[in-house]
């Protein structure tokens, strides 16, 4: 008996009742007093506390304009659905900002005023329309001072970071000052003089990119203080830092400064050290912050480097292409997808990196950002420096079967690494107890934010980008995501406290997991039945071949009685298996249909009924309160 008409009739009656209930409740908006409930599993429409705090900081009105080509994107349901999600989140933020955040949505039709406005902001449409129309999908923000901030294109694949991107856009319009980055580098990031070509080299590409976004100040490696207006401290291979510089870094962190530290047990770019008269190296090309990290239960061992099976190919001393285990790439499966610094990156390349080790009693919270594969191993740094042939590394390579951390975000309250105050020095000002601005801090003023990377070579051009010259212009062509990682890290650390607390949210795209489970179960049954059918066919063919070989009248086209009987048995078994296949398919469809009916009853009938009962209860309580 077909129950579909009765199911449809029942669903229709429930829909009519739901409309009556909801219309009666919503007709009077004062009844609910603006009540809003987020009933989604992952609270998709509930703003994070950090976002709400940021919205309360808006003093002058800010306007966000969403440019979305509604008509041109009519054949792209993913974009249309995501645009609705963006619009709803922007409106929720506007409500939380109590009128200080204005939201408008424009469809930049061809040759329209809206398209002119989009182009004036610097937005450019992508030619993905069905007839070659340009599709705009970006956000332009403005404040009353005329400052602008943009999200050029909203990628649905990055939907988990939508709230973070919108909050960052608003922050740019609240505080228009460019973050200040203080750089302490143990490598020649400015290029320097190349004795081979006898020319002055160019700055590293990542440094040029950072200067476009931030105010970058170079600090001496023996600096005694870090200015108050520096927002981020970038330590790039900080080798042999004196105690008073480590103390300045300590105090900078404790008073709320953010640090990107790229330390290295073996930097290939560090200038080769000349041999001393005794035959040893004048220095080891290693850097660390052990004087600080040890006090907080963190270590990057300076005598260990890592190797991994995801090796890069290099030219060996004999000019043969060789896989170098200590030069390896980390792909998406080793990158943290819930952290904005690593989400969306394709591959990071490392050269003789170290790893981050955390003690059990460390006061810091550790969030791994980049990890090796499970086929990684550890190698003595001295051995790595001594072996010039990549083949030597492969001989003694032994994977350890666990992921090792190459980069991590460290947060939490910590004590100073200098409990006795500033280190002794001959300088009178410092010996008097003032190293840098402010008094000595014995503990951090809240959580510190330290992004620790156990490699410095990854920022160098040779690990991620090729630069070509075109009519005097340098054109970088990246082949890895190293530069994006460094810029993302600086961008993240340069955000407000509210932004630092935001993480990737769950996606609003909800797969039908129960339906998929039913289909997987049915497909497993179908696969098993098909496998039995194929086995029966193979068995029948083998038996027919055996019977054919045993015939005395071989070569005739007529089938023997035994062959005919075998074919009949196979045909009967084939019919039975086909019947089983049809039953499995019918069971799958019936299970999915039954699940759909239950969902209709819940969504169309039960949920509106619960909301109606809540509204009636609110009305009763309000009347009792006014009596």
Tell me the major beta sheet: 7 strands, mixed
Count structural domains: 3
Average pLDDT, rounded to a whole number, is: 79
- Helix coverage percent: 25-40%
Distance between the termini: 57 Å
Compute the gyration radius: what is it? 33 Å
Q: How many strand elements?
A: 22
- Taking pLDDT < 50 over at least 5 consecutive residues as the criterion, the unreliable ranges are 25-34, 273-282, 428-437, 504-509
- Specify the overall morphology: globular
Provide an overview of this structure.
There is one protein chain. By secondary structure, the chain is of the alpha/beta class. It has three domains: 1-44 and 514-539 and 568-627; 49-174, Glutaredoxin, CATH 3.40.30.10; 180-274 and 282-300 and 339-372 and 403-500. 37% of the residues lie in helices and 18% in strands. A seven-stranded mixed beta sheet has the order 8-5-9-10-20-19-17, with helices on both faces. The longest helix is centred in the last third of the chain and has 66 residues, at 561-626. Mean pLDDT is 79; it is low at 25-34, 273-282, 428-437 and 504-509.
